[in-house]
Design brief:
- The chain is mainly β and 289 residues long.
- The chain folds into two domains: 3-155, no CATH class; 178-288, Cyclophilin (Beta Barrel).
- 8% of the residues lie in helices and 36% in strands.
- It contains three helices and 20 strands.
- The protein has helices spanning 39-48, 193-201, 272-276; strands spanning 3-12, 15-19, 57-61, 65-69, 73-81, 84-86, 89-91, 97-99, 104-107, 112-120, 151-155, 178-184, 204-210, 214-218, 233-234, 239-242, 248-251, 258-259, 263-267, 283-288.
- The strands form four sheets. Strands 12-19-16-17-14-13-20 form a seven-stranded mixed β-barrel. A six-stranded antiparallel sheet has the order 7-6-9-4-1-11, with no helix packed on it. A five-stranded antiparallel sheet has the order 2-3-10-5-8.
- The longest helix is centred in the first third of the chain and has 10 residues, at 39-48.
- It is elongated, with a radius of gyration of 20 Å.
- Residues 28-289 form the Carboxyltransferase domain.
């Protein structure tokens, strides 16, 4: 296998995982798709360095990351918006930049959003598991979480060149309230009218209980009109399950493929990237898709 260099991780921050577009189509085996939570940020970072959209990159939560390049390498950082430094000098986010042999890249805590996506030209070339290089945090499939001292191989450069951009392609996550589009869930009729009004008219915030499996929301309790148990049924990314205490949780990429709580609504696919970048305490509003 030919590698174009490597990335030696000196500090991995709160969480750094290898992610690509995941392993869809395996739910019948009990395997969720996984993959980058902010898929748009992954695709953009890869396009900025000439990679295919699904090349493996690093998903870095909350900054605190530092790594050294072994060879000349183009890279781009998208998703969360924060201070980047290459060899101690400020580097632009949402833009391709060239590291030289021995260059050190540092990502500070983000000012907006929470998940950086770091793409390198050629992709992070770790072994595939079930067709994907993504880490699934629920099942443990895929490469181990990235730790300080890890040396990550970089794949051969793609045929496409690094594109020339006339303007910055920067769309940082918002600082204020985030509006998410909702579709009716398969068990919407299990909930009282007041619960549906509360969902769209109430005040909601992201809780600290948020990871790649699901994001729990703080707000009103959502009362059911249908009691009793629900047999486990299939879930999709964005499913809003409501537990017995009436609190909703948005299921994300590493969710179980089935669940036993009723789903009142489903976050539209176009809004899921925004969920990936929400910080604890950030306000969220819902609208009909």
């Amino acid at each position: 296998m030919t590698h174009a260099g490597s990335l030696t991780v000196e500090a991995s921050g709160a969480s750094t995982l290898v992610q690509d577009l995941g392993r869809p189509g395996l739910a019948h085996l009990g395997v969720p798709a996984s993959g980058a939570l902010d898929r748009g940020a992954l695709a953009l970072a890869n396009r900025l360095v000439g990679n295919p959209d699904g090349a493996a990159a690093l998903e870095i939560v909350a900054g605190g990351f530092r790594a050294r390049f072994a060879a000349e390498t183009w890279f781009a950082v998208t998703g969360a918006w924060g201070e980047l430094r290459l060899d101690g000098r400020r580097a632009a986010p949402y833009a391709a930049a060239r590291a030289t042999p021995g260059s050190v890249l540092e990502l500070a805590a983000p000012a907006r959003g929470i998940r950086y996506l770091l793409a390198v030209r050629g992709g992070v070339d770790v072994p595939r598991v079930l067709g994907s290089r993504s880490r699934d945090t629920l099942s443990g499939l895929g490469p181990e979480p990235v730790r300080a001292g890890d040396v990550l191989p970089i794949g051969a450069p793609p045929e496409a060149s690094v594109p020339l951009l006339d303007q910055e392609a920067a769309f940082p996550p918002p600082e204020g309230p985030v509006t998410l589009a909702l579709l009716p869930g398969p068990r919407a009729d299990w909930f009282a009218d007041a619960a549906h009004r509360a969902l769209f008219d109430g005040e909601w915030r992201m809780s600290e209980q948020a990871d790649r499996i699901g994001a729990r929301l703080l707000g009103e309790t959502l009362a059911r009109r249908v009691g009793g148990e629900l047999a486990s049924e299939a879930t999709v990314p964005g499913s809003m399950q409501v537990a017995g205490d009436g609190r909703p949780t948005i299921l994300l990429a590493d969710r179980p493929v089935t669940g036993g709580y009723p789903v009142i609504a489903v976050v539209a696919a176009a809004s899921l990237d925004a969920v990936a970048q929400m910080r604890p305490g950030q306000a969220v509003r819902f609208r009909h898709a």
